[in-house]
Design a protein that fits this description.
Elements (H helix, E strand, L loop, with lengths): L1 H11 L8 E8 L10 H21 L4 E8 L5 H9 L1 H9 L9 H12 L10 E4 L15
Parallel strand pairs: 1-2, 2-3
Length: 145
């Protein structure tokens, strides 16, 4: 973020009319959930969320917006591999996700494109959650599908 923001500021020059850039961090819903087996990951994503908010304030005078996408389960290559080995894990994810599915990678891409676009020109310091509603539920009270 430090390196790219310096370059954005330099490229934008003195043109106060146009934005200098947009930084999009990728975070996780683990930042807001308690996962004892994933403590280091949860803490580091929570720190990334705070860094997103802090950078948004620090870089705003330079016309740079900083936002983050907090992901639930996205069908990455590593998740695909894990699911091949453990079908119960997929069932568990879907059971605890109101939309009852795992996100496709293009859904993340479209969210990032929105955040980088002029349509999000007045958004900074925000953490957008893309998780199919998973963080809305207490796992104990999750509906059965």
């Amino acid at each position: 973020s430090q390196l790219v923001s310096k370059r954005m500021i330099k490229q934008a020059g003195d043109d106060d009319e146009n934005p200098a850039g947009s930084i999009i961090n990728l975070s996780s819903i683990a930042a807001r959930r308690t996962h004892p087996d994933l403590m280091a990951y949860s803490v580091s994503t929570a720190a990334l969320d705070q860094m997103t908010r802090s950078l948004a304030v620090a870089l705003a005078p330079n016309r740079i917006r900083v936002n983050s996408i907090a992901l639930g389960s996205v069908m990455s290559a590593s998740l695909q591999s894990t699911l091949k080995e453990n079908r119960d894990f997929r069932d568990d994810i879907e059971k605890h996700t109101p939309l009852a599915r795992i996100a496709a990678p293009n859904e993340l891409v479209e969210t990032a494109q929105f955040l980088a676009s002029d349509a999000a020109g007045f958004m900074t310091g925000q953490i957008l959650t893309i998780d199919g509603g998973r963080t809305l539920l207490d796992p104990v009270a999750a509906p059965a599908h």
